[in-house]
Structure formats: structure tokens, C-alpha cells
């Protein structure tokens, strides 16, 4: 049996080869990372900004904006006029990637990222339901981050939502700083949607991307309230509207992903529309995700499609769901290996002010899928 050294927590995310397991979690066989290309200008911009180590506003002067790869002309102008907002776009990109990987970490496609400007690979531009989710969560991330920046007073051109004032129909007093979601959505529409709109909304892919961008921005605020009165009697209640945690946005969009509607283009008068591919499908709404082509099974490495395959992925031998070894390893079977796990333990706080831990080593049994023929000799 092979001996593999493990270190927790991992330094990287996505499909980067490596085994990080608990005793109940096993691993498929390792595979080489594919090197897919990507052409969606919005995703290119997110790629650059999400991996920029410094505040984007420090890097994006008027000349730097013009040099950003993938920006459309209007995006360059927005960047030049609102360089400070690019920090929020950067943060929105980071939120989107992190949330995507959280939602899909147990799936065959796990929202894998690559270093550089390739981020999601060709999956982002193939018109699949995975592409639909990427566009929805990315546009939501930008709207969310810009809105939060407004509420924190980080942007000169926006602040709290001052339109919510007075007494509500329920009898409480509007007060506090309500999140200015309308500004965040408007910024996301202007910046994120521009590549498709600047060339005219004529292609089916552009229609699909615009619809999913808008579906991602269907964020609803909820109430936060504070009571005022003697001994907390709540004689007066003041409330304001805030956005939900981004995890809730991700949860909703993941549900939309599961129920996404397959569509195809249809000419209606002078307009080109996307309609359900089958009459058996329910009509989709502005909140739903749509896609044009069926997804691959993501089992095997396919550089043409930008699919990494599932070899090298962590799996759970006790699960019968998608994270189980049978499904995640695509029925290829698995072999037993021993792995040495290294993790922090016996942590103690030392005055003042640090926490020191020991390193504990123990062996766990892991399963690795048999190497498929397509990868034989590559690893």
C-alpha cells in the first residue's frame, strides 16, 4: 500500500492535486491539471481582480484600466470614473469563487479554478448549467460587494438607502442604514452586463448570460430591528433593511441550478427569445437559471472541453450521494492506500498574545480510484 503524507489545512482550492481526508473520506486517483482557455471578458476581469494581492484601486489608474485584459470600452470608462469601486468588484469576485467552491465541493464539477486568467476554464463559456451558475453567482457577488461598500461609506458616489423613511405599515419606525441594494444592482448591471450588450444582444449565449446575470441579482433584503423603551419594553421599534449573508444567496442559486431550465432560441416577431426546449418543461421566470446545452459527466479529463476529471478528488466511502466514492470516482473502482495525516493539536494560548500548537501525526486509510486509460502514463 502506498504511503502519502497529508497536511491540514490545504493551501489551495479547487482541483489542485493533493489529498486532504478524514478517516471516513477517501480519494480518487491523481490527475494532471488541464489548461483550458476562457474568453468571457467579465470572467477574465474577475480572474485578474480576484488574484490581485493589493487593493485594486491602487493599481487601476486611468491608464491601468485601459490595460486590463478583457474589458469592453464602457467597462474601461466605468473603471476610470470609479476606480475605488474596483476594490468592491475584486471582493465580489473573491466572494463568488469562494461560494461557488463551497456549493460544489462534493460534486464531480467542483467549481475548479486555475492560476492566472483562466479561473473557471472553458466550463464558463459552454452554455451549460454550470456556466449559468458561474454568471449568476459572479454578478451577485459584484452587486453584493458594491452594496456593502456603499453602506460602509467606502464609495463617494453612494451611501445608505435614504429612500426608506418614516413609519411603516406595520407601525415601526424606519431608521438606521438600510443597504443601498438598488445602487449595487445598477452598478453590477452596468459593469457586468456590458460585454454582451455592447455587441448587441443577438447570440443565444449572450441572451443566456444576461438572463442568468439578472437572476443572480435577485437578492432580497430582510429586516433588522432594534427595540427602544424602559427595560427593553420595545415601546418603539426602529428597523432597517440589510442584505442576507452571501451564503444564503449561494444556497438559493444552488437550488436554482438544480432546477435550471434547458432552453433554445426562437424568433418571435423581430425578437430572438429563449424558450424551454421541451413543452414538458415549466416556463422559467426571471429568478430561474437557464442553459443551452447539456453538461458533460465531468468524469474524465478532457482538455478540449476544459474538464479536469475527478481523479485525485476526495471522496466519502460511507456516502451514497454525489460525494461517495462510487459516484465521484465514476465507477472506476479504488485501491487502498495509507496516508499520514498531520494536523494541529494541543493548542494553548500564551500571554500575550499568541496561540501555539503541536503537530500530531496519525495514519488513516484512504481509497484511490484506479487510473483510467486516458491518463495512463501521464501520472
UniProtKB/TrEMBL annotation:
The keyword rRNA-binding does not apply. It holds the Pfam family wnt. Signal peptide: none annotated. GO terms for biological process: canonical Wnt signaling pathway; cell fate commitment; neuron differentiation. It comes from the Eukaryota. PANTHER family: PROTEIN WNT, WNT RELATED. Belongs to the Wnt family. Ligand for members of the frizzled family of seven transmembrane receptors. This is Protein Wnt. It comes from Chelonoidis abingdonii (Abingdon island giant tortoise).
